[in-house]
Amino acid sequence: MKMQEIREMAKKLGVRSFGKSKVELIREIQRAEGNFPCFGTAQGYCDQLDCCFRSLCLNSGKSTKKAKAKTTS
To answer: Over 90: is that where the pLDDT of 6 sits?
Structure first.
């Protein structure tokens, strides 16, 4: 998901996006939607089934692990 799409979501929810990173903004949106602000912390499992960032979060964790593995080898 692109940052512009995330900013548009934030605006609709009344969340200010200026000066926030993608992760910070997603977590603010999660709070506004009534979910836990946990984006990027899942380790292969997420019980927040109604969160619109769930699949992005789970996929970002995989890419982060791959990136870490490449830098350590």
So the answer is: yes
